[in-house]
Specification:
Elements: H1 3-16, H2 22-33, H3 36-56, H4 66-97, H5 101-122, H6 131-152, H7 159-183, H8 188-197, H9 201-214, H10 220-278, H11 290-321, H12 333-336
Helix pairs in contact: 1-7, 1-9, 2-11, 3-11, 4-10, 4-11, 5-10, 6-7, 6-10, 7-8, 8-10, 9-10, 10-11
């Protein structure tokens, strides 16, 4: 086996490893798997507790001052900016979903071509309409081809090539089984997270390398199986990119809606805070309740930023983990990031 092929296989095997430590799970929950509304709520709670602690220890005073007046004015300006961002996101999504009849027809023809390619690769009569079912059919077809390749390796006389095929089959089988486990999860995002995060073009890349280096030593059955796996992985990569596009549009639309929903109370909170501190103590808020009132209003005003941050964290993570179609890897860290 060439050093290049051995290196590629070792990198491929490292991709299948999943870190199940508590720190990794917490990180994945914050950046990827966690409910975005809950994460935004936790950010808001952390803001409230932090402001309360720094007030109790005397680092910040919420008495009537020019600094609090400037802060309240800045909050109002910031809320207007966030609402503008939410409206811009909505306009972007609408512009992508609308178009002339010819453009819509082209998109439809492209989808029908993909469905026909899917049916040829998986040998099914009709492509499933649900993404989870579609990925399940791809996973089952890939496992069938892996089993066929595993059986065909017995006809190979070279021990080194036979061991290579066995390692490739074991690693690919484990990776597809991980995908099937993700597909059995609850919720559309959890079910599709495996396909979104893993780069299945790597399977096709290794299969093509084996065919190129050992094509003359492989049986017809093994060669045909490797070619089928390559085609299945190409379909996987296309479906993965398509699901990522649909998911990103849905998430951005949901994020803009929630930012608008919490942005209006946040704007009103900023106005009330500005009224309180702009009146130089003329308002009816008693002095003992002034710090708690200010902290509550600032927390409410921070919720739009919390929602924006929670959704941007996830969409940016999805974009990072699906930045390429195929086995191209920008750094070694992305090989083991799941």
């Amino acid at each position: 086996m060439s050093d290049k092929l051995r290196q590629e296989l070792e990198q491929f095997q490292s991709r299948v490893y999943r870190d199940d430590s508590i720190l990794s799970r917490v990180r994945d929950w914050v950046f990827f798997n966690g409910d975005r509304a809950l994460l935004a709520g936790l950010i808001g709670l952390a803001t409230f507790l932090s402001l309360s602690v720094v007030h109790v220890v005397g680092l910040i005073s919420f008495d009537y001052s020019a600094g609090m007046t400037r802060l309240s004015t800045g909050i109002v300006a910031g809320e207007f900016s966030l609402l503008t961002i939410a409206l811009s996101i909505n306009q972007l999504i609408i512009s992508q979903e609308t178009g002339p009849a010819g453009q819509i027809q082209q998109r439809l023809d492209g989808m029908m071509d993909f469905r026909q390619r899917f049916e040829r690769a998986t040998e099914v009569d009709t492509t499933p309409s649900e993404p989870v079912e579609m990925l399940s059919v791809l996973a089952d077809s890939t496992l069938d081809e892996i089993a066929r390749l595993n059986t065909a390796k017995s006809e190979i006389t070279e021990p080194e090539l036979r061991d290579l095929i066995e390692e490739y089959c074991d690693t690919t089988d484990q990776n597809i089984e991980n995908l099937k486990r993700d597909l059995s999860g609850s919720g559309p995002f959890n079910a599709l997270s495996g396909a979104i995060t893993d780069n299945y073009g790597w399977h096709a890349h290794l299969a093509r390398m084996i065919l190129a280096e050992y094509g003359d030593s492989l049986s017809d059955e093994a060669s045909d199986s490797l070619e089928s796996i390559t085609e299945l992985m190409k379909v996987f990569s296309i479906a993965r990119a398509h699901f990522k596009t649909l998911y990103t549009r849905r998430e951005l639309g949901k994020a803009s809606r929630l930012i608008l929903a919490v942005g209006i109370p946040g704007l009103l909170s900023g106005v009330v805070l500005n009224t309180i501190y702009g009146s130089n103590g003329v308002t009816t808020v008693p002095d003992p309740l002034l710090p708690l009132t200010a902290i509550l209003l600032i927390t409410i005003a921070s919720l739009p930023i919390a929602f924006l941050a929670s959704y941007i964290l996830r969409t940016a993570t999805v974009a990072r983990r699906t930045a390429n179609i195929g086995p191209m890897v920008l750094d070694k860290e992305s090989l083991t990031e799941t």
